[in-house]
Amino acid sequence: MAAPVSSVGKPSAERSPFNNTSFQKKTRSKLISIPGTRPSVQNGQLLVSTGVTSLDYLLGGGLAVGTVLLIEEDRYDSYSRMILKYFLAEGVVCRHELYVAAAQDNPDDILQELPAPILDDVAMHKPAEQPRLSCEPPDGLDAMKIAWRYQNLPKVQTALASSSRFGHYYDVSKTMEPEIRQAAKCHRFYLPEHPTQSSPPHSTMLESYSALLKSLQEVINREGFDVAAPMSNSRNILRIGLHSLGSALWGDDLCCHDNPKNGRALTTFLYGLRALLRSSLSVAVVTLPSHLIQDRALMGSITRLCDNAIALESFKGSERETNPLYKDYHGLIHVRQVPHLNCLASKLPDHKDLAFKLKRKQFSIERLHLPPDLSDTVSRVSRGELAGATTVASACGSGSSGNKHLDF
Amino acid sequence: MLPELLQGVDTGGLLVIQDSASYSGRHLLQSFINAALNREEAVHVLGFEVSEEELKDGLRGSPVQRLHFHNAYTDPLGWTDHPAFTVHQFCLGELTRLVKQTSHSKPATLVIDSLSWILRHVSTPDVCRTLQQLRKGGAVRSIIGLLHADMHQRGTVGSVCHSATSVITVEPAMRGDEAVAKITKRSKSGKVIQDEEIFRIKDDLTVVVQSKFSKGAKKTDSEEQETDPTANLTFNLRLSDTEREAKQKLALPFVFSKEKKTALLHSGPGSGRIHYEPDANDDYDQEDPDDDLDV
Q1: Helix/strand/coil for A108
Q2: What residue of B is the nearest CA neighbor of A262?
Q3: Residue A82: its chain B contacts at CB < 8 A?
Q4: Which segments show compositional bias classed as Acidic residues (chain B) (predicted)?
């Protein structure tokens, strides 16, 4: 059981300096209130937003704390990387802690490419900004030509704390400003920086995976994300992003051979990761280049070891690119698994054909439907044809001209 | 797009030429070597599959002073006592040392002929890791490798190409001396460009592109198309420059001077008082509007 923890003596959410009201909701529930989370309406689990609101909806409201989301990468790793960046950016905005691990690119590069949030109340993260008082010299009077009477009112007026909102929108064309990013604490794991020690011969896990798991465990214990740790007033969530696990750069030959030698290394790692997550306040997103894995049975067991699993299939480079049905979208999204936490079965999404489109301000996932058939063969009787039909006087229409369609 | 790739692979890039038994990619590889030599770059070739004479024979007419051939053709597995270069020397330390031996001002281009040979004897994760380390280290500017796609499993080819920045797959075309090149190029920003061209290699190892079928460059982050609402109307909604100036100059109502604005904004506590003395007109009697009743 991951998240629900009883809290005696109601901890208050971190008071943001811009919380203008002194009103605080009395939480009688047993869930700890952490900014950026909310309880699920289905089963009461503590949920965290993935950063993409349509993906949250697909996964049943959000990612439950203590679970793993597996994203099967598309061919050129463009959209899966984008979702990972959304996930980390959401963590920065909600002021969670981040942990990024990668073998190919430096985690700092990934962190620098995070998309910028589109909200005016996120600007509240800059603590130095005070509401403009009327004693300040009216420099900016020229700024407002018509509404100048509102000049001196404070710029932002929101009653609640900024991070109480669940799910934010991001502008992909801009990167997040360094001040906002540096406000969040990030832990990094870059595989080439860790010297590989030889693993004991009886272990089924590779050195890279065991080093990663050890590092994760150390961070969780040190920063106090462990559920068993002594209760302090402020708890936070650790967001873990693991990029391209299982690729050859992690030392795994899962993607290289049809019968990999250490085929169980990744599955052992995922088992250990899930055990670690269940006993701590963290969420993990793992991307995997599944198009390189030839063994489908192994892929199935990897999917089953993660709680949520989605697969992205981009149209780029495939023959579907020119299909007129798909012209509005960038790819298809397949939901392989939804979690069933503390219940027997879970609610699968109703629609199985889902397509995604990456727009500048939104990553939208929509149901794929057939467009209306506007071609010429749709029967529409024109005047000329009608006139021609009246001359053909046969009652049953057997003598009618071949190319006139009867429209009922 | 083939000519642009021939101009130079980006720093830190890995170019993989995939060929098959039906069309050999070695001519294209020689074109790349030729182009690099003509650009006055130092080229180091790890030759596993062809001997030095054969390679230099094919590169007739190019400045070969800057070409350094490491002979892995005679004894790649180290069976004799003094092998020149073995396949087990394919690791970061050895290769850096080899490249730095012939020190030049500019970092060198490393050409591997072929990657398939190395993949048969060294495990794929190690090869990928070495290539990645070479790219990140400073000794080598770019790496060009030849890969025989039909010699390996799909996963192996996929793994090597997954970390490559550009992949060129060559296949035979209709005519004998022409070939089709399918190019996939990944830029640092995440954009993926794909192209398909028919090319021919002339005797002096220059590449002539006959025709292109381009699949079109698509951006991975596409912007929303904003339709211009002022287009396609029967009346004119746009402003010319003079009209815009006149609009700016227009004095709006309630636009006060700066002093009046500050006075109004920073009004003191008592400035809004109204002083009123009732006068005779305020004695308005409802029942006697004309005030002429004499009661």
Answers
A1: helix
A2: B125
A3: 220-221
A4: 279-295
d(CA B103, CA B139): 10
CA atoms within 13 A on the CB side of B249: 6
Separation of alpha carbons A67 and A216, rounded Å: 15
pTM of the model: 0.73
Please check whether residue B39 touches A, CB under 8 A: no
Q: Who contacts A394 (Cβ-Cβ below 8 Å, separation ≥6)?
A: A400
The reported pLDDT for the residue numbered A270 is 95
Structural class in CATH, domain A37-119+157-367:
alpha beta
Could you tell me the CATH superfamily of domain B1-212? P-loop containing nucleotide triphosphate hydrolases (3.40.50.300)
Q: B53: helix, coil or strand?
A: helix
Residues of A in Cβ contact (< 8 Å) with B156: 256-257
Q: Which of B156, B71, B169 is nearest to B115 (CA)?
A: B156
Strand partners, A116: A171
Whose structure tokens read 């025709």?
Answer: B211
Query: ipTM more than 0.85?
Result: no
User: Burial code of A39-73, b = ≥16 C-beta within 10 A, e = fewer?
Assistant: bbeebebbbbbbbbbbbbebbbbbbbbbbbbbbbb
pLDDT of residue B222: 41
Phi (first) and psi of residue A149, to 5 degrees: -70, -20
Which chain A residues are Cβ-neighbours of B159 within 8 angstroms? 247-248, 255-256, 292
Which sign does the torsion angle of CA A386, A392, A393, A396 carry?
negative
Give the residue from A173, A250, A255, A256 with the most B CB atoms within 10 Å of its CB, the best one to mutate: A256
Q: What are the residue ranges spanned by the domains of chain A?
A: 37-119+157-367
* Interface touch A248/B264, C-beta < 8 Å: no
Amino acid, single-letter form, for residue B73: Y
What ranges do the domains of chain B cover? 1-212
Q: Are B24 and B154 in contact (CB under 8 A)?
A: no
Determine, for residues B124 and A358 on separate chains, whether the beta-carbon distance falls below 8 Å.
no
